[in-house]
Amino acid sequence: MLINRLVVIGVGLIGGSVARDARKFGLVKEIIGCGRGEANLQKAVELGVVDSYTTDVADAVKDADMVLMAAPMGAFESLFRAMKPALSPNTIITDAGSVKGCVVDDAIKVFGEVPANLVPAHPIAGTEKSGVEASFEGLYRDRRVLLTPTEQTDPQATAKVRALWTGIGARVDEIGVEHHDKVLAATSHLPHLLAYGLVDTLARMDDSREIFSYAAGGFRDFTRIAASDPQMWHDINFTNRKAILEVLDLYRADLDQLRHWISTDDSESLMTCFKNAKSARDHFSSIFHAGKPGDGDE
């Protein structure tokens, strides 16, 4: 038994799927759910995802061996403040958020330093669905999980978090906090921002019903992620603001360049761009094909 008492704050797709697999593989003795939505928590008990629940964060973390924060990124500072008085010195705190710099920053605001038992983590897996009923066993099988321990992080705490993820079938790597946020801004956060923006633009057009009724498979594939939880992605865009703005500015400049080529009939430049993009996509196709539909939505 790896963990006697696991507390999952935010029992939705991500947190609920961790809980399901931790129980399935015998990694945990007791799972406590915590969150603001009591109906969702009651459903989590009914489904056997958690053993019991509370809406009180301090009550939840008492005597916990590990706390997994799977709530929206904007809630982390308040969650840290709520749990601080009740935390045992040996309790390991980890998370499943898509931005890591804000986790470290929020911890410093509340604790005055990065706690030795804080192990920031990011499972690169998910779907556009949310809530405990969207959770399922096997979400993390062969999926990559990035740990971003700091210089202050206790190696034993990192090892225990690594063991949890590998125990449910994930592939675990370690990466620096700042580098993580830059990479994910480009590969995950920007695509979600673009999908939300495109769907919103088209939905506000006078002939939006006709536009969506004639949408082909490419449009559905590209915009599927716009069905993701708005609150989660709202928080991600503000907590990773600097890195997202940098890559957004770069992409906006490239869009202007594409517009210029089309407006000036620069066929050669446009074709070169398309060929380069296809070559790059083909080169990395083996990485993409190693995943499954929905992989990396977070």
The percent range for strand residues is 5-15%
- Poorly predicted runs are 291-296
Number of helices: 13
Look at the helices and sheets and give the structural class.
alpha/beta
Q: Percent range for helical residues?
A: 40-55%
Arithmetic mean of pLDDT: 93
Strand segment count: 9
The biggest sheet amounts to:
6 strands, parallel
CATH architecture annotation of the largest domain = 3-Layer(aba) Sandwich
Radius of gyration computed on alpha carbons: 21 Å
Family: Belongs to the prephenate/arogenate dehydrogenase family.
Organism: Pelagibaculum spongiae
GO molecular function, one term: prephenate dehydrogenase (NADP+) activity
InterPro entries: 6-PGluconate_DH-like_C_sf, NAD(P)-bd_dom_sf, PDH_C, PDH_N, Preph/Arog_dehydrog, Prephen_DH
How do the strands and helices of this protein lay out in sequence?
Layout: E1 3-9, H1 13-24, E2 28-34, H2 38-46, E3 52-54, H3 57-61, E4 66-69, H4 76-83, E5 92-95, H5 101-111, E6 118-119, E7 121-123, E8 144-147, H6 155-167, E9 171-174, H7 177-203, H8 208-213, H9 217-223, H10 230-239, H11 241-263, H12 267-283, H13 285-289
Helix pairs in contact: 4-5, 7-11
